[in-house]
């Protein structure tokens, strides 16, 4: 039987915690940061839990 491959794009963007939650990065923290307020960029640091509506699809992609 062939092995089940995980989606390489999804595996770069999401990670699964020990308890099974899926974490994602926040948007707007990639480029053009010079004109964005520091207050905003600090708020966008760190991972957040994925929305419940998307978890089923992402879990399937991660394998």
Structural notes for this entry:
- The chain has three helices and three strands.
- The protein is an alpha+beta fold and 63 residues long.
- A three-stranded antiparallel β-sheet has the order 1-2-3.
- A hairpin with a 5-residue loop joins strand 1 (14-16) and strand 2 (22-25).
- It is 37% helix and 16% strand.
- The longest helix is centred in the last third of the chain and has 11 residues, at 52-62.
- It has helices spanning 8-13, 38-43, 52-62; strands at 14-16, 22-25, 47-49.
Features:
16% strand, alpha+beta, Ribosomal_bL35_sf, Ribosomal_bL35_CS, 3 helices, 3 strands, elongated
Q: What order do the helices and strands come in, and which of them pair?
A:
Elements: H1 8-13, E1 14-16, E2 22-25, H2 38-43, E3 47-49, H3 52-62
Antiparallel strand pairs: 1-2, 2-3
Pfam family, one: Ribosomal_L35p
Protein name: Large ribosomal subunit protein bL35
Organism: Nocardiopsis sediminis
Bin the strand percentage.
Answer: 15-25%
Rg calculated over all Cα atoms:
15 Å
Give the terminus-to-terminus CA distance.
Answer: 16 Å
Strand order of the largest sheet: 1-2-3
Shape designation = elongated
Unreliable sequence segments: none
Average residue pLDDT: 95
The helix content, as a percent range, equals 25-40%
Structural class: alpha+beta
Number of β-strand runs: 3
User: How would you sum up the major sheet?
Assistant: 3 strands, antiparallel
Helix and strand sequence: HEEHEH
How many distinct helices? Answer: 3
